[in-house]
Amino acid sequence: MRSVRYEAPATVEEAVALLSDAGGEAKPLAGGTDLIVQMRARMISPGVIVDVKNIPDLLEVRAQDGGFRVGAAVPGAVLGENEAVVAMWPGVVEAFELIGSTQIQGRASLGGNLCNASPAADSTPAMIAAGVTCEIAGPGGRREAPVEDIVTSPGKTSLGNGEFVVSFYLPPRPARTGDAYLRFIPRTEMDIAVVGAGVCVTLDEGGTCTAARVGLGAVAPTPLLVAEAADALVGTRLDDDAMANLAAAASAACNPIDDKRGTITYRTKVAGVLARRAAGIASERARSN
Amino acid sequence: MAKRHVTTTVNGEPREFLCEVDQTLLDALRDELGLTGSKEGCGSGDCGACSVMLDGRLVCACLALAVEAEGREVETIEGMAEGERLHPLQRTFLEEAALQCGICTPGFLVAAKALLDRDLDPSETEIRYWLAGNLCRCTGYDKIVRAVQKAAAEMRAEA
Prior knowledge:
The structure holds two protein chains of two kinds.
Chain A: E1 5-7, H1 12-21, E2 26-29, H2 35-40, E3 48-51, E4 61-64, E5 67-71, H3 76-80, H4 83-88, H5 90-97, H6 102-105, H7 110-115, H8 123-129, E6 133-138, E7 141-146, E8 151-153, E9 156-157, E10 164-170, E11 177-184, E12 195-203, E13 209-217, E14 224-225, H9 227-231, H10 240-252, H11 264-287
Parallel strand pairs in A: 1-3, 2-3
Antiparallel strand pairs in A: 4-5, 5-10, 6-7, 6-10, 8-9, 11-12, 12-13, 13-14
Chain B: E1 4-10, E2 13-19, H1 25-32, E3 51-54, E4 57-60, E5 73-75, H2 88-95, H3 105-118, H4 124-130, H5 142-158
Parallel strand pairs in B: 1-5
Antiparallel strand pairs in B: 1-2, 3-4, 3-5
């Protein structure tokens, strides 16, 4: 087995230098719940492991401009205990908390879930629905990008050489706005999404939907932002017809695989059902805040 | 590749060891420190037999690198009893026959203690969800859940 180097830089700049010097041979380590599994299964063999958890930015949750800045290595168990974040973006947090067991929640991170680039990542569609962006550091400095721009295909991201995700920005939640995430698995806990659906809706004072975002997971090579599904809701009062149009648009956006967890037909159908149910929960939350 | 020197705290005691960079915390606990209570079941974070506390969070020791323990606090099953005096969970697991082969037991105990340290009155559903990452192929779980409930009741009575 090839020897591997371990580095635990204290600053973003040092991490960028380590990652860019190693070319594609380096892997950032946050919670390790994907990385270490893949190393042990010999799916990957990085030359350098860059543990980012000694960098304060990566483990911080702080209020910023009415929203929240969440470090890319913050574990699910930590974010789930942050009442202010849970109150503002419950859909994002409930998606994050669906990942794995209590033990996995002690380590798993939003940054890892996004950059592992699984089509079935739970937190990614929820972050897409909530309009979350991520701050990326690299040799060219820092940039902010929408979450939906990161995953390009299974296991691949748009991050350039030396780039890594430092943090996420959960924007201020507009008035009468709610988000929700639902996933389907054949059991009640500890499984990989057959379909995941995140929905965020904003209502006006009369109850008409003025803005919406819909994210889908596990139904295409990448998590999806489905504009057509959101368009089916905007301008409506989220009545049965609008919900049916949402479900149809969500199903139409699917391009899933057939595998042991679900057939193409099944995933396509369930995507519509879950999108409709998540929209129902999101609209209830929107009405109550 | 030179081994790495790691200085850490295990069960409240300062400890140091040498490890390979890609060695897991579980392997370092077992092979370098002789703490063989934590078990390797799956090695992929699915079974929970290697459950330990790392800086106060329940984690799978098979999914942490030993080098990550540098400067941090690790708690294992070996730190659960006070000398000969068993933790209430250890005692109720025996009383309720909540183990058969015993491989999963240290992980269940560490995980259940993490739950009761947060909440001394969890519902059965909360116990089952909290322990969903600990697999047992012998007991069928009911006896484990009952043992946790019994320990919680005793600890509430003493609190």
